[in-house]
Design goal:
The chain is an alpha+beta fold. Among the domains are: 12-148 and 483-514, Adenine-n6-DNA-methyltransferase TaqI, Chain A, domain 2 (Alpha-Beta Complex); 258-419, Alpha-Beta Complex (Adenine-n6-DNA-methyltransferase TaqI, Chain A, domain 2), CATH 3.90.220.20. The protein contains 14 helices and 23 strands. It has helices at 111-118, 122-127, 139-142, 152-196, 201-206, 213-239, 274-277, 323-327, 379-387, 389-397, 410-415, 423-465, 480-494, 508-514, and strands spanning 12-15, 20-24, 36-43, 51-53, 58-60, 76-79, 87-90, 95-96, 100-105, 146-149, 270-273, 278-283, 297-302, 320-322, 334-335, 340-343, 345-346, 352-354, 362-364, 368-373, 400-402, 405-407, 417-420. It has a five-stranded mixed sheet with strand order 2-9-6-7-4, covered by helices on one side. It has a four-stranded antiparallel sheet with strand order 12-20-16-18. Strands 14-13-19-15 form a four-stranded mixed sheet. A hairpin with a 7-residue loop joins strand 6 (76-79) and strand 7.
């Protein structure tokens, strides 16, 4: 909505501070535990979601509220530091931290009307925020926010109509979000069924395997050893040395999977470790700064923000490094199309992607591990398993959390047990998953579009409400200009005797007495 859009003749544009008291919250010292744990909810921006609020994760004690600014019921809360414009309306006595400005409207202003209008103020807040690293709207600037003031009884009619229309709209949004949640749950169930063999049970009964998972694993391990021996012999030849006795015994056997507590697999499947099924599993590192402006940066450098929980890369935020750094300092973490990437630093863990062919070579930072599948194992099978509840639960049970950061070691990744189906069943399984996921994605897109349309519809309803188009004007209503004069007169009369709401020394009882 524009700052001063057209309004009916019986309305008036006013500054927010002319018809309310704005109270900036504060935080009682957290070092004193006596300040917390009572019956007064203490709100912070995460609790503001454009809805009424009555409870908060943190509460203040009678001791603590003496160091806070207590708010009466029907106070409208607006986040004014960081994410601007999140709102709520209180249902009981409460307090907030310093990131929130509370609006306590004069008695001639319907607080619900003010609550709905302040939901539309986001663009004004952003446009008038201070130009710092963190967006801030201070109290004095916030009090200048434009406010379209209708006659008192029209405010009530607008609120009633908004509640009628928005309740229906919100019910539809709730159903859409419930459907979103069910699709996410179905996706997890699908991956679980896929990697446990349930998804291809019927297919398996009609397509006997020509090579079992155990035989495939044995072939993979033999090929792996043969490659190692060929490399060792090549080194001896380059050095002009005769291979020492029993040199083959130095072969580094890949770690065996620990199958304790794992579910039984279908006939023809076998458990294998990540190290057995991948040419290698390693991670990247942080490249040195490339200060020279003439250095051409052509290699995409992936970070955790580029991984998703859908198996695809999100390249909205791309970073590039030079070929020199890529081939030199970061040579051990060169990434190619069809490599599977997983974050090993969170939260959240569980971000996985198969590298596409958009670039021929990529690189990664130290928070990402590479799983490069061997011949006979499909990269997308590796990806779907890493995203499955079975793998995620196993990995998270072995993660370490320090200072709020969750980490997985490469050793854990290499020892991760993988269910290995025969190669032809892997193909069938991926075909089943692709068809099901395609249906899920289409439904998700439809829901996302419907939610987008609901948001637009909500804005249209609010726009109509605050431009006087939602309900008809009543010529018998007292104009807002008269209402405004009454507010000014009453404020002037009470200035000398009225105790300011929200003063620090106020108790909960005093706040109740005032209201």
């Amino acid at each position: 909505m524009s700052k001063f859009h057209l309004i009916p003749n019986s309305w008036n544009w006013v500054n927010l501070g002319n018809i309310s008291e704005v109270i900036t919250g504060n935080t009682p010292p957290t070092s004193d535990v006596k300040n917390y744990g009572g019956g007064i909810p203490f709100f912070k921006p995460p609790q503001l979601n454009d809805t009424p609020v009555s409870h908060a994760p943190e509460t203040l004690s009678e001791y603590g509220i003496k160091k806070a600014r207590i708010l009466p019921p029907k106070s409208v809360l607006v986040s004014c530091i960081g994410i601007l414009g999140k709102t709520a309306i209180t249902t009981n006595l409460s307090a907030t931290n310093q990131q929130i400005n509370a609006v306590v409207f004069d008695k001639f202003i319907n607080p619900e009307y003010g609550f709905y209008f302040l939901q539309t103020l986001g663009s004004w807040l952003k446009a008038n925020s201070s130009a710092t690293t963190v967006a801030i709207i201070n109290k004095s600037k916030f009090e200048t926010a434009p406010f379209p003031l209708p006659p008192f009884y029209e405010q009530t009619r607008i609120v009633a109509k908004l509640e009628e229309l928005l309740s229906d709209l919100d019910a539809g949004v709730a159903e859409l979000k419930a459907a979103q949640k069910k699709l996410a749950q179905y996706r997890q169930s699908l991956l679980k069924a896929a990697v446990s063999g349930t998804l291809t049970a019927d297919w398996r009964s009609q397509h006997p395997a020509t090579e079992t998972g155990a035989q495939l694993l044995e072939r993979i391990l033999q090929q792996r050893r043969a490659r190692w021996e060929a490399k060792q012999l090549a080194k001896f030849q380059e050095q002009g040395k005769t291979p020492p006795k029993d040199w083959e015994k130095k072969y580094p056997e890949p770690v065996q999977p620990d199958t304790a507590g794992l579910p039984a697999l279908p006939p023809g499947w076998v458990w294998a470790s990540g190290e057995q099924l991948c040419e290698f599993i390693t991670k990247g590192t942080t490249p040195p700064k490339e200060s020279a402006s003439s250095v051409q940066k052509t290699i995409p450098f992936l970070r955790v923000t580029n991984l998703t929980d859908r198996g695809e890369l999100d390249l909205a935020d791309k970073v590039f490094i030079s070929a020199e750094i890529h081939r030199g300092f970061l040579a051990r973490s060169v990434v190619y199309p069809n490599d599977v990437l997983m974050n090993i630093v969170g939260p959240p863990l569980g971000q996985v992607a198969v590298v596409p062919s958009k670039f021929s070579e990529w690189n990664i930072n130290q928070a990402i591990a590479i799983f490069r599948a061997v011949d006979g194992v499909f990269p997308w099978f590796i990806c779907h398993y890493l995203l499955s509840p079975l793998a995620q639960q196993w990995l998270k049970a072995r993660s370490k959390t320090t200072a709020g950061q969750t980490n997985l070691t490469l050793e854990v990744c290499r020892s991760l047990p993988f269910p290995l189906p025969p190669q032809n069943e892997q193909e069938a399984l991926l075909l089943h998953i692709d068809m099901a996921l395609s249906s899920i994605v289409n439904q998700q897109k439809s829901i996302a579009l419907a939610l987008q349309q609901s948001t637009a519809q909500r804005q249209n309803i609010l726009r109509a409400a605050f431009s006087g188009q939602l309900v008809p004007q009543d010529p018998n209503d007292e104009p807002a200009s008269v209402l405004l004069e009454r507010i000014r007169a009453e404020r002037a009369a009470q200035t000398a005797v009225k105790k300011p709401r929200g003063r620090k020394a106020q108790t909960a009882k005093e706040a109740c007495d005032e209201n």
